[in-house]
Amino acid sequence: MAKHDSQLDILFTALGDPTRREILTRLARGPATVSELHNAHDGSKDMALPSFMGHLKKLEEAGLITSEKRGRVRSCRLNPGAFSPVQSWLETQRTLWSERLDRFDDYVTNLMKERKNGTGPKD
Amino acid sequence: MAKHDSQLDILFTALGDPTRREILTRLARGPATVSELHNAHDGSKDMALPSFMGHLKKLEEAGLITSEKRGRVRSCRLNPGAFSPVQSWLETQRTLWSERLDRFDDYVTNLMKERKNGTGPKD
After folding, report:
1. Best exposed site among A31, A53, A119, B94 by fewest CB in 10 Å?
2. % of residues, chain B, pLDDT over 90
3. Where is the HTH arsR-type domain (chains A, B) (predicted)?
4. Does B1 have pLDDT greater than 60?
5. How does pLDDT run across B44-68, given as a tens digit for each residue?
6. Taking CA B100 as the corner, what is the angle to CA A85 and CA A37, rounded to the nearest 5 degrees?
7. What are phi and psi of B121, to 5 degrees?
8. Domain segments of chain A: what residues?
9. CA of A41, closest CA in chain B: separation in Å?
C-alpha cells in the first residue's frame, strides 16, 4: 500500500507541471528527440535546455517516458501504461462517490414513502 | 488555455500527497468534521492538527473540497466535479495514443500487403 501510494505521489507530482504535460501530449503522437521536444516547447525561448532536460528526467523517474541515446542524439517515447495507477485511483473515487449517491437516493425514496404513508414528519 | 493549465497544475499537485488523497477517499463516503478526518488519518499521531489543516486548505484551494464552520466545528465535503479537468486531460492522452496505435496498425497492414505482393523489401 505504501509503495503504491509513493508511486501515485511521484506520478501526480510529475503531472502537476504544464511543461511536463506538454511533453507527454507531444509524445502521445510518437517518439521524439530531446531537441525536437525542446524546439516544439511553447516557452523554449524562456527555458534553457538543462532546465528542460530536468523535466524529462522527472517524467522518466515517474516511469511516464523512457529514453535512449544513440550517438549524440537522445530519443524519448511515452510509456502509456504508466497512467494506470492514476486512472485506477480516480476510478476508485468515482465508485465510492457513486455508492454514496445510491445510498442517498435510497434515503430520499424511503423518506418520500414515509411521508406518503403519513408515518414521517409533516410539512 | 493558460488558465486551464494552471488549474491542472493545482489539481495534480494537490493529488500528489498521500494524506490529501486519504482525505478525499474518506470524504467520498460522506461529509466529515476536521476532527473526524484528523482522528481517522493513518498518521494522526505523527501529524499535528495545524499541519493536517494545511492539507485541507490545499484541497480547498484546488476546489476539491469545500468547508463550512458552525460554531466551533468545521465540516468538509467533497466537490466531485473538481476531478473533471484531470479526467478530461487523461482522456485526451488516451485518445492521442489510441490514434497513434491505429496509424501504426495501418502501417503494419500495408507493409504486410506489400510483402505479400512482392513490392516491399524481402526477408
Report:
1. A119
2. 63
3. 10-95
4. no
5. 678 899 999 999 999 999 999 999 9
6. 80
7. -65, 145
8. 6-79, 83-117
9. 14
Q: Measure CB to CB from residue A100 to each of B29, B90, B92 and give the nearest one.
A: B29
Q: How many CB atoms lie within 10 A of CB B14?
A: 24
Contact B66, B77 (CB under 8 A): yes
Interface test with B, best of A1, A26, A97 (most B CBs within 10 A): A97
Nearest CA in chain B to A22: B5
Name the nearest CA neighbour of A32 among A17, A47, A22: A22
Which pLDDT band, with edges at 50, 70 and 90, does A44 fall under?
low
Kindly state the helix (H) or strand (E) to which residue B32 belongs, with its residue range: strand B32-33
Tell me if A69 sits within 8 A of A19, measured CB to CB.
Answer: no
ipTM: 0.81
CA dist., res. A81 & res. B96, Å (int)? 14
Q: What is the pTM (predicted TM-score) of this model? A: 0.82
**Residue from A63, A112, A58 nearest A83 by CA:** A63
pLDDT in tens, A102-111: 877 787 888 8
> What is chain A written as a DSSP string?
-HHHHHHHHHHHHHHSSHHHHHHHHHHHT--EEHHHHHHHSTTTTTS-HHHHHHHHHHHHHTTSEEEEEETTEEEEEE-GGGGHHHHHHHHHHHHHHHHHHHHHHHHHHHHHHHHHTT-S---
Write out the E strands in B52-112. Answer: 65-70, 73-78
**Whether B30 and A100 lie within 8 Å, measured CB to CB:** yes
For the domain spanning A6-79, the CATH number is: 1.10.10.10
